[in-house]
Amino acid sequence: MAISAKDVMELRKQTDCGMMECKKALTEADGNFEKAIEILRERGLATAAKKASRTAAEGMVYADYCPECKVGVVIEVNAETDFVAKNDKFVAFVKEATQVIMKQNPADVEALMACKTENGETVDEALKNLILVIKENIKVRRFVRYEGVCSAYVHGGGTHGILVNFETTNGIDAKDEFVAYGKDIAMQVAAANPGYVDEASVPAEVVAKEKEIMLAQMAQDPKNANKPENVKQKMIEGKIKKFFKENCLVDQEFVKDGDLSVAQYTAKVAKDLGGDIKIVKFTRFQKGEGLEKRADDFAAEVASMVK
After folding, report:
1. Cα(18)–Cα(144) distance, rounded to whole angstroms?
2. Cβ distance 171 to 234 under 8 Å?
């Protein structure tokens, strides 16, 4: 059966696949569009499986908050190259997955994959269709969902995503000044990378380990090795306070005003707005954090494809 250029263009329009792929699929399907789409989807699944072993450490991190439903989400979706983060279809998929998480509250990534999107397909099907179009390994790596008052912030076009959860009183979360404050706190988390909210949230074993390291350092330092034990303990107390100041969000210097700690800035905003503010928890995702990035020669790969 002769396949017209018009048919090929129409299939390409529907699937976003390459011209030659569309022509081959139509030929195999004897011109049947539904069958051709099925063939392309099957090939897409095969492509996804083939690419699954390739490292996906690029992509983007995204965060969003719904003030009406008071639910916030931060998500990381990885791909093989940073070009993908600029692809409209990739960005749309990430945002759609975020909305699914907000509305359906899946327990984990596996549960998310089984959730239905607005057009009726599962997130897993949407992902595999995206792989068919983009031709890279793409994975939803992780997400966090908070209920309650939140602030969401995306830095660097998707290199970092921050979600901060608050407790507030007197409806102050609806005020523009609180929204600005929330963004400031999220940006603080992005810039200063605290490990904990406050001293109380630092596990006892972490503090004990820090003290152990500090004592070992003193033992190696001729200036401190022979000092009395009570003096060493006083020095340890000072060092632990410094550790809290550097690693606990509320104890950190506020990045926009070094004369204030985050706790002092929070108290000031709460007083000005006539309510109370408590920073409950936060999540900071950095794109590709902990993943091994591709080290292959991209130019050579393109050249080999042309050949």
Report:
1. 36
2. no
